Amino acid sequence: MNAARSLVVIAGISLAGCAWIQPAAEPVAVEATPTAAAAAEAAPAVDSEAFDREAKSRPESLEVEPLESPAIALLVDQSQTAVKAGELAQASILLERGLRIEPYNPRLWQRLAEVRLAQQRFIEAEEMAMRSYGQSARVGELCRRNWLTLRETRRALGDPSEADKAATRAEECVLAPPPRF
What we know:
By secondary structure, the chain is mainly α. 67% of the residues lie in helices and 0% in strands. Helix 4 (70-84) runs antiparallel to helix 5 (88-101), helix 6 runs parallel beside helix 8 and helix 8 runs antiparallel to helix 9 (160-172). The termini are far apart. Mean pLDDT is 80; it is low at 15-36.
């Protein structure tokens, strides 16, 4: 009888642990510090095409890409067209629409980080690039883009030592593909 009672108590405690709901964390507002705001005003605009060329400059790297729906691919293409036309707000809207469809898509987060970088919204760009990095395979072009974005944000915010560390991490994203027989 004691064993049965103990079993019931243990089962009850186990189920109670599953039912506990953690309160939602309150959103944290990120405020730009005076030095960050001054750096943003003084920072030169990032050349999107040069950034893209640098990210793709290592074609021998192993690539791991998630499957993507045609709708998301279309939104990414439309956002790239908007960026080339200088319509950064429209590109942002398109990518945010894609994130409502696929909120864990690292490619969307990185593209939005690059738009924020072009808008000189450096803190947001850094956060989005690191969110993309956290959800990706951490190798290949996407990984390089994450760290190159971080490098550019650190440069713009006046932190050259962290920018150098990010550039080093970008190079670590390049892995040789396995040999094919």
